[in-house]
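Re: the request from the purification team.
They wanted to know what the chain is likely to look like in 3D before they choose a buffer screen. I agreed to run a prediction and write the result into the notebook, where they can find it.
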Amino acid sequence: MSGPDSEPQPQASGRKSFWIELKERQVYQTAGAYAVIAWGVTEILDGVITRFGWPDWLATLVVILFVVGFPVTVFLAWVFDWTPQGIRREEPWTAMGWASIISAALFLVAGSAGLFWLINPSGIARVEQVGVAVLPCRFQGEESYRFRAQGVAAVIHQDLAHQAQLRVPAFSSVLDLSARNLRTAELGALAGVSWLVECRLSQDEKLWRIDASVVDVTEDHSELVVSLDVEPENLVPALESIALALHARLGLPQTEINRNRLTNRYPGHTRSFDAYLQGEQAMFAGTPADYRLAREQFRAAQQVPGFELAQVREADAFMMLLAVEPPSSDRELEASLRAIRLMLDAAGAKNPDLAELQVARMRFEILSARLGLGEPPDEIRQRAWFERAVQQKPSYAEPYRLLAEVLFNAGTEDEAQDLLEQAQTLDPAR
């Protein structure tokens, strides 16, 4: 109890630094811990969603919740403090007044933006896409190896089609456009691209030379990006080196480069890779005999373990054959569909991240219903496969086309039409 003669107590000056207050109120520690937890949870959730086939919008929702929660968490750290007596409310902004309030608001806005950039792995998709078309590969060598030329161009196309910052028209469309002998500007305008990628494959004794160039459509200027002399057994690693060089020339960030390594899709065994390339070439022709040949080639490609893409493509060739030439008996048809399902299940168990696998699942469900041996396609499941396919391979027209068919049959015509327009953008010649 104080009396008239009591010694006066020192008063707080109220001039404490704003940054010192942040430290004393443990705002820095709270923000750092929140960012680490948010990053860890989103990384773990991304793997869990892929593993269990959950819809991709779930990860987006969690990211949004973390971003919205960040300024709230920092504000609570500023206002409240943990004490041995429990949570205690601090007296806010007594030292700095309105200047502290404005500084705190700026800090929260900057922190929220930084956290959103940190934990949003798909941010690159918001960048305006660059249009790039891959031209057929010019060939010089033995005629029996001509399939490699088209195959090399198709593999480079597949790699670029996985990059979210690029919009890559379907290779079949580019083949059709390039057959018209158009000028560079005309071809670029019809394909809707700013850049063309062209390659040349030439055979010199036991070595193969691969040249890859980019062409600026506007200026009609060609620039050699990379030239490699490779032995046949090193063809796949050489194609990956070429892809990385093209990524760098087209300005793709490192995070995009690491998303789709060619060596994860194609084994380096020469015979297996050649069989796969010949299977893909047969798929372009589109006759029953070609689909049978494609099945044989894709099956031969699977002699090397780890080639799940060839297994999926064998299932695709089988489904194409059933669509144009179904068996005469229901028993044979049921056995064929059962075999296709087993192929897809086996590929999915080993490599669930293939965009081609998601599309094959969509196609299988639609085909089964069309042939009268399955239920109507499940729209929710079709959407989940669609979202995974386009996330893994953004420039992929087929999932848009398949989901549009499902939605048309379900009566959702406006959305289906939008999907078809998007498919037309990615595959203009179809």
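For the purification team: The radius of gyration is 29 Å.
Please add any questions underneath this entry.
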